[in-house]
Every structure is written in C-alpha cells, then in structure tokens.
C-alpha cells in the first residue's frame, strides 16, 4: 500500500512554551480517509497547516505524495486541496468568481477555470446562487463553496479541517456523502474533527490527539472496542448520589463506571441488556434517577476511556501529555452525543 | 463512472512549470488578485463613496472655512496669483492618497483575519502576488480618486497654471507616491492583529506626516524645528514638487527629491512588506 501522507516526529512550538505538536507521527494510506480526532487546542489544525505547507515545522519531517512539505512545497501545493474550519472564501465575490479565482491561482486556463466553476457549482447545488456575492450565502452554502474551492484542481490529497463544525445536520450529512464519493474515486482525505461520530462514519483510521500527542490510533472498531459500543448514562440529584449509583453498577460492565458531575457514565457492549439490568438494580435499591439514557460514545467518552479524564478537565493529566501546553488554552467545552453547537475556532 | 464522480475524480498533475512560464504565471497571479480586489471595491460601493467624501470635505474645509484666513506669503504667492485654492489642491491630492493608503493596510489585515491569506499560501501561486495584487488594485483606486479630486478642485476654482505636461507629471508623481505608500501600509496591515487595529495603527503615522508638511500652509510660517521636519519628510518634497509642476516655480530640486524619496522608500518598504507577509499569521 502506498502512503499518501507521512508525518514523522513533527514538532511545533508557538511562543516559548505552547507545544502544539510534540513529535507527532502518522501515515495515511492513499485512497483512504484518516481522521485526526481531538478537542480544541489538541494540535490538529497545526498538523494540517504543516502538511499543507502553510507552516514550517520546528522539527521532524512530512511528505505528501512523496514530496517534502518544506523543501518541495511547490509540488505539494500543486497536488493538495484545503478546506479550513473557517470558510476561507472572499465574501465580496460571487460563488463563481471565487471558484474562478482559485482555479486561475491553480494555474488552470481561463476556459477550463470557467468550465470547472460551472460543474462544481452544479455538483454542490449552488448553481442558482452562483452569481450572487457570498455575503448572501448561508453558513452551510459558504462551507460547500469552500469545499468546492478546495476541489478545483482535482487534488489527489484533500485536507478537511473540521469541515462540519457549526453546520446544520443536513449539511453535515451532505458533506459526509461528498467525502465518501471523493474517496470512492481515489482521493486521499485527511480529516480533523471533534466529533467521534464523524470520524467513525468517514475514517478508516483514527488518531486521537491531545495536547500535541497522539494518544491512540486505530480503526474506528478498535477504538470503540476499547471503550464499549454504548454509554449508559444515569443522572442523579447530586454527586454523592451519583457515587452511590456508580458503586451499585460497578460490576456490570467491563470497565468501572465514571462519575462526571451528577452523572454516572458506564461504557457497555450491549446497551439494551445493560439498561434492563441497571434499572433492575436501581429499583431493587429504591434509587430513582433524574435521568436515564443510552447514547453513542462521544469524544469525551473516548478521552475518558483513554486518559481517565474528560476533555474539560485541566488538571490531573495522564502520563505522557505535556503539562506546560495546558496553560494557554482554557475553554475546552464538553461535547457529548451528536454535535449541535457551533464550535469556536482553534488556531493554535 | 457517474457524472458526479467524473467531476470529483482526482488527477495527478505534472510538476510545476519551468522558470520561463513561471514569470508568465507570476503576472497572471498578480492580475487575478488585482481583479479580485477591484471587484470587491465595486461590491462595497459605500467604501469607495465614503473614501471619496472625506477628501472632498477637506477641500471644502480648507477652501471655505480656513482658506480665507491663510495668507500665502513669499515668492509662491505671486505664482499662485493669491488664490489659496491653487496652493491647496496639490496638498489635497497628496493628502488624499496618503489617507487612502490606510485601505491597503485594512484590506490585507482583513484577508489575514478571514483566513484568505492562509488559503492563498496553500495554493501553487506566486507568493508575492497577494501583495502585488493588493497594491495594484489600490493603485487603480487611487487613479479614480485622483481624477475625482481634480474634478472637485475645478468645481471650487482650482486651475492648472502651467501646462498639460506639467499637470500630467504632477499626477504621475502623486500616483507613484501613492503606490510607494501602499507598500508601507501593506506592512502595517500584515503586522496588525485585525483590520480595526490596522486602521488605528495607521492614523498616528499619517497625521504628522500630512499636516506637518507644506500641504496646507507654507512651512516658512512654522517654528524652526517643525520646518526642519516638514521639509525633510517624504510628504514635504512630494507636495512641493507636485505644486511646482502644476503651478510653476522652480521644479528641479523638489522633483529630484520626491523621486528619490519614492525610489528609496520602495527599496525599503517592498522587502519589509514581503517579510511581514512571510511572517504574518504564523505565530499561532
């Protein structure tokens, strides 16, 4: 199998202490989707910016289609497409003018630029809006145009940096289908995301990133096996009651239940069976939970399973992470289940 | 293959073009970015409108509010036939392109802020085209604004006292100076964290340069230390040379100084802007 992207011990430090990437290595097989999964500030965007030649790494090396991203940057740029977490398109231009501009800057002829703009507008269902300035576009339309702009030069390797953060559910599904079609015709995709669901659906391999380190790598099945397919979530009135329930449910799953706030979270393999057993146990002990549910594991659950902490905790670091990198980034938000809220940008 | 997959299919492209055609592509890239910026001007007509209103208000302010109280003394008064408006307008031309240069810094700061420059960096385009395309577009905007200011000047009584050649030479000098300033303000825009800051960073630099100059009043009436500054900073010779070219008087020294300032500043400001462009947005 050919490797379309190879990153070897990439290092990048911002300022004096913010270690965005600390010897990060991974490789992406041609024609597959590779997911970099992690919370804000994990270093995902920094990795993408290095691989797309925007940033120069402090240490390590990387190759895209065999071209070194530092020394053969021109060759790399000629074969990649990038769609950022901000729709980086010119809002004063129309959709067609944006695509035409990016085509021309990719050194395509006038005629093929115009033809390419037309076919991409059609494919992304933007034909009707194609001659309106982007100021009039909705967020979802802008994001579609951004992805279209990344595809003008028919890149063999496509970088999608949090392509669906802030998108409505339908736009998200449309984008996922587009990525699947791209991969079906042979494109290699590097995707960064905060959503386990997205990485699970699209990626053949996932690397979980945290404060500049890859803390786990594997197929979605392997990662999910490590934490259980479903999460049983029991809410109580206070944390003391939650701790009591955790003790009650301790023997049920392969892993110990975790108390998060007033909630008890337990990864289980067979959700329905576990729910029945848990309800029986609670009933026997006269415990009435304020909330009881089964849900898909979220990024938080992955982190909990891998590091023993959730993405929001800033103290109590697991071994192997870089404590000094913690200082600069507060504001990690807790995310669970399906992504619904717009995310704030991660630029470090 | 479905129609969709034909549109999406990747294509391995040949290595980048040879040296010969890269010059052609550099020109093409600069023109593409220039065109993009010019289109943006037309999409935000309010920007162009208010950009023109301010210099017009300056003309009216100095022509009708302050003008009556400003006496042009010395040998120049004779050439100007005592019409302050003739003294004023060359100063206004230079002032207009001076304040107009702020929009170069705002434009680049905005591109940086919105992530467009990030996208450009990942494209196989010429690195310098983003800057050159911006300064080119601002050059075109300056031609438009200059023509407008000449028309406004004529409406309030300004008349060229020399000849067409002198007027065109003066116009060329003003526009060359405008292009030079654009590169300096490009560097400022690329150093600012956002467009609002780019704007407020620009004014404290421009204000003393424009007003402590012979743009509105003769330097002879300023205190000695200020005279020394007013005649030794780039706006001084550029204003005096434009005035001399359009209204007569000894031109050679001023024109030489003004051209030297433009050339010298370009040699410094272009690499400075390129350096800021390479560094911009890379610290996080």
Describe this structure in words.
The complex is a heterodimer of chains A (348) and B (284). Chain A is of the alpha/beta class. Chain A folds into two domains: 3-217, P-loop containing nucleotide triphosphate hydrolases (Rossmann fold); 224-317, Alpha-Beta Plaits. Chain A has eleven helices and 14 strands. A six-stranded mixed sheet of chain A has the order 6-7-8-3-9-10, with helices on both faces. Chain A has a four-stranded antiparallel sheet with strand order 2-1-4-5. A four-stranded antiparallel sheet of chain A has the order 12-13-11-14, with helices on one face. The relative contact order of chain A is 0.15. With 284 residues, chain B is mainly alpha-helical. Chain B has one domain. Chain B has 13 helices and no strands. Chain B has helices spanning 3-8, 19-43, 45-66, 75-79, 84-100, 102-113, 116-121, 129-155, 164-191, 195-211, 224-232, 235-247, 252-279. In chain B, 42% of the residues are buried.
Helix content of chain A: 25-40%
- CATH class call of the largest domain in chain A: Alpha Beta
Share in helix of chain B: over 70%
The major β-sheet of chain A equals: 6 strands, mixed
Largest interface: A-B, 52 and 39 residues
Topology:
The complex is a heterodimer of chains A (348) and B (284).
Chain A: E1 3-14, E2 18-29, E3 33-37, H1 44-51, E4 59-64, E5 67-68, H2 73-78, E6 80-83, H3 95-105, H4 110-123, H5 139-151, E7 157-161, H6 169-184, E8 188-193, H7 196-202, E9 205-210, E10 213-218, H8 220-225, E11 230-235, H9 239-249, E12 258-260, E13 263-268, H10 271-284, E14 291-295, H11 299-307
Parallel strand pairs in A: 3-8, 3-9, 6-7, 7-8
Antiparallel strand pairs in A: 1-2, 1-4, 4-5, 9-10, 11-13, 11-14, 12-13
Chain B: H1 3-8, H2 19-43, H3 45-66, H4 75-79, H5 84-100, H6 102-113, H7 116-121, H8 129-155, H9 164-191, H10 195-211, H11 224-232, H12 235-247, H13 252-279
Helix pairs in contact in B: 2-8, 3-5, 3-8, 5-8, 5-9, 5-12, 6-8, 6-9, 6-10, 8-9, 9-10, 9-12, 9-13, 12-13
């Amino acid at each position: 199998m050919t490797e379309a992207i190879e990153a070897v011990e990439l290092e990048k430090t911002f300022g004096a202490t913010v270690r965005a990437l600390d010897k990060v290595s991974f490789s992406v097989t041609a024609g597959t989707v590779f997911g970099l999964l992690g919370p804000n500030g994990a270093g995902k965007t920094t990795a993408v910016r290095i691989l797309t030649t925007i940033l120069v790494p402090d240490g390590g090396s990387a190759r895209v289609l065999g071209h070194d991203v530092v020394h053969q940057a021109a060759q790399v740029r000629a074969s990649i497409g990038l769609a950022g977490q901000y729709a980086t398109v010119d809002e004063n231009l129309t959709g067609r003018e944006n695509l035409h501009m990016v085509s021309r800057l990719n050194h395509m002829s006038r005629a093929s630029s115009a033809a390419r703009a037309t076919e991409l507008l059609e494919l992304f269902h933007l034909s009707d809006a194609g001659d309106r300035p982007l100021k009039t576009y909705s967020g979802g339309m802008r994001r579609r145009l951004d992805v279209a702009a990344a595809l003008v030069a028919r890149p063999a390797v496509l970088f999608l940096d949090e392509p669906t953060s802030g998108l409505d559910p339908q736009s998200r599904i449309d984008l996922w289908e587009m990525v699947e079609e791209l991969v079906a015709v042979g494109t290699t995709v590097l995707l960064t995301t905060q959503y386990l669901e997205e990485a699970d659906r699209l990626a053949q391999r996932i690397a979980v990133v945290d404060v500049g380190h890859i803390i786990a790598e594997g197929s979605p099945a392997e990662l999910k096996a490590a934490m259980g397919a479903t999460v049983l979530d029991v809410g109580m009135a206070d944390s003391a009651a939650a701790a009591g329930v955790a003790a009650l449910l301790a023997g049920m799953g392969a892993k110990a239940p975790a108390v998060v706030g007033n909630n008890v979270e337990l990864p289980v393999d067979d959700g329905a069976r576990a729910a029945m057993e848990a309800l029986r146990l609670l009933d026997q002990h006269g415990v009435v939970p304020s909330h009881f549910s089964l849900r898909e594991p979220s990024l938080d659950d992955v982190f909990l399973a891998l590091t023993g902490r959730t993405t929001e905790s800033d103290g109590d670091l697991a071994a192997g992470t870089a404590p000094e990198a913690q200082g600069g980034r507060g504001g990690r938000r807790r995310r669970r289940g399906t992504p619904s809220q717009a995310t704030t940008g991660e630029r470090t | 293959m479905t129609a969709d997959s034909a549109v999406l299919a990747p294509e391995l492209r040949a290595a980048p073009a040879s040296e010969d055609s890269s010059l052609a592509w550099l020109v093409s890239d600069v023109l593409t970015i220039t065109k993009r910026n010019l289109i943006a001007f037309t999409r935000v007509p309010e920007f162009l409108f208010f950009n023109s209103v301010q210099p017009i208000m300056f003309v009216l302010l100095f022509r009708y509010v302050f003008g009556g109280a400003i006496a042009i003394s010395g040998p120049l008064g004779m050439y100007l036939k005592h019409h302050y408006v003739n003294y004023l307008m060359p100063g206004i031309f230079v002032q207009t392109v001076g304040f107009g240069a702020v929009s170069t810094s705002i434009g680049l700061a905005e591109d940086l802020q919105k992530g467009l420059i990030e996208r450009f960096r990942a494209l196989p385009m010429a690195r310098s085209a983003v800057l050159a395309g911006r300064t080119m577009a601002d050059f075109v905007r300056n031609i438009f604004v200059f023509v407008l200011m000449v028309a406004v000047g004529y409406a309030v009584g300004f008349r060229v006292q020399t000849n067409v050649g002198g007027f065109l030479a003066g116009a060329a000098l003003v526009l060359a100076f405008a292009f030079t300033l654009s590169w300096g303000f490009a560097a400022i825009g690329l150093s600012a964290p956002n467009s609002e800051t780019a704007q407020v960073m620009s004014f404290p630099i421009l204000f003393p340069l424009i007003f402590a100059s012979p743009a509105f009043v003769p330097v002879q009436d300023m205190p000695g230390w200020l005279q020394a500054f007013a005649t030794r900073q780039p706006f001084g010779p550029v204003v005096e040379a434009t005035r001399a070219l359009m209204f007569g008087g000894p031109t050679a020294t001023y024109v030489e100084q003004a051209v030297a300032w433009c050339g010298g500043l370009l040699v410094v400001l272009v690499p400075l802007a390129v350096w800021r462009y390479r560094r911009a947005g890379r610290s996080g």
